[in-house]
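[step 3/7] fold_predict: job queued, chain A
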Amino acid sequence: MKRKEMYKFYIRRLYHNIKLFLRWSIFSSVVGLVVGGFSTLFAYCLKEVTDFRTERPELILFLPLAGVFIVFLYHVFRYKNDRGTNMVLSTIHAETELPFKMAPLIFISTIVTHLFGGSAGREGAALQLGGSIGNQLGRWFHFDEKDRRIVVMCGMSAAFSAIFGTPIAASIFAMEVVSVGVMYYAALVPCVFASLIASKFATNMGIAPSVFQILHMPEFHFVPSVKIILLALCCAGLSVLFCVVLHSLGDIYYAKFKNPYVRIVFSSVIIVLLTAILHTTDYMGAGVPVIAEAIKGNVRPEAFLLKIVFTALTLEAGFKGGEIVPSFFVGATFGCLFGQIMGISPSLCAAVGMVAVFCGVTNCPITSMLIAFELFGYEGVPYFLIAISVSYLMSGYYGLYHDQTIVYSKYKTEYINRKAQE
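[step 4/7] structure written:
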């Protein structure tokens, strides 16, 4: 009798698991297609407006008007509590509710920001777009609150994968970025399925994934390893600087300029003047061409600092976009410069700096490693692992997202449950 009951228990458990798998595989496929479709359109629009602006650099003169339009747009939609990617993380923590109107707002405002030369990325906007759409799909399918958190992560993975073309890293990033030290493995199947489907959809629609070639790879020996450790230490400090500058400028802006129109026009004018003084368009948009040049070994010495300044002026004033590609820009340009000074492959150092700064600002070492593998291949694995681990340890509890929770200490096997520092 006991054995019969045990068999029944195992059958019920198997039935439950199969039912759960079918449910999530079907739904995550839907999310992958829907979010992948919107994200592909988003990536296509970004490419078109970037190409258009590149041929007409004088469009940056209209950046103040673009800023006024964005503030007006958010006012019309009565969306005052705009906290960007923080809102997505907060929704997963069940602290706030992610509104669906965030999707069209972030879509339009990010396109406008890039069209007129704002210095912003795209992945941060994609995370908000994917999270918002995923959350709405969860409502329509009548998912409960806990399952909707998984759906939000599922949407984030799909959007990140479609935009950047790194489906493996995208699958993990949504689970890792929410709570440092703890991963929501319940979201693993939905995130993997949605990410892979969205990536395939984007690729079939002509959105090519980003892949870079490291020009020279030194043998893994003691001296190059020491230099990479030094680079990682510098990148950890640079990631802290990046976070502090962004958040500090935001605090100053909100304290000094209560009116959002005044704030965004003031910052726009500074961006236009700096661009005119520097006689370069390198800091407009995400800056992917500059990243590509850095990996080839070409860089302006001041590029990494200026990108921090331009990105802070853009995002903290009220323009929309993301901080992730700017962090890539900062890490790649600094790494290339470091390699030139220290006599080690500037191309390798640019790649290492790129993922090390990303790790420092997001506190996501596993995602950083996967991004390195997908973007640069596996030849430099030892150097990437060293740099990412050192940057993760030495960057402390700073982060781009204040609503990111540091569950376990970076330094001890200790539960701390605190928010990331700004």
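[step 5/7] annotate
The chain has a mean pLDDT of 90.
The radius of gyration is 22 Å.
exit 0
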